[in-house]
Amino acid sequence: MKIKCPTCKNKTVWKGNPHRPFCSERCKLIDLGKWASEKYRIEGRSEDTVASSSNEKDA
Ligand SMILES: [Zn+2]
To answer: Choosing a second label site near 39 at 20 to 30 A (CA), which of 13, 31, 49, 52?
Structure first.
């Protein structure tokens, strides 16, 4: 079964995916970061991954 990652829209697998419905932990954190960006910023980010604000037009 294939699903689409809500964060990056890439296809990923559901089965055996520990980060579902995301494709990776990074996408999961990005999604959480929408409401808790300050908290998760320190969670192992060495670079400014979210090329910010391109992703923030949800209501
Ligand atoms: Zn993703």
So the answer is: 13
Report the CATH number at residue 31: 3.30.50.10
SS (H, E, C) 36-57: HHHHHCCCCCCCCCCCCCCCCC
State in Å: Cα 56 to ligand 1 middle. Answer: 15
> How far apart are the CA of 52 and the centre of ligand 1, in A?
16
Range of the domain at 10: 2-40
> Per residue in 11-54, pLDDT tens?
999 999 999 999 999 999 888 887 665 555 555 555 555 555 55
- The pLDDT assigned to 11 comes to 96
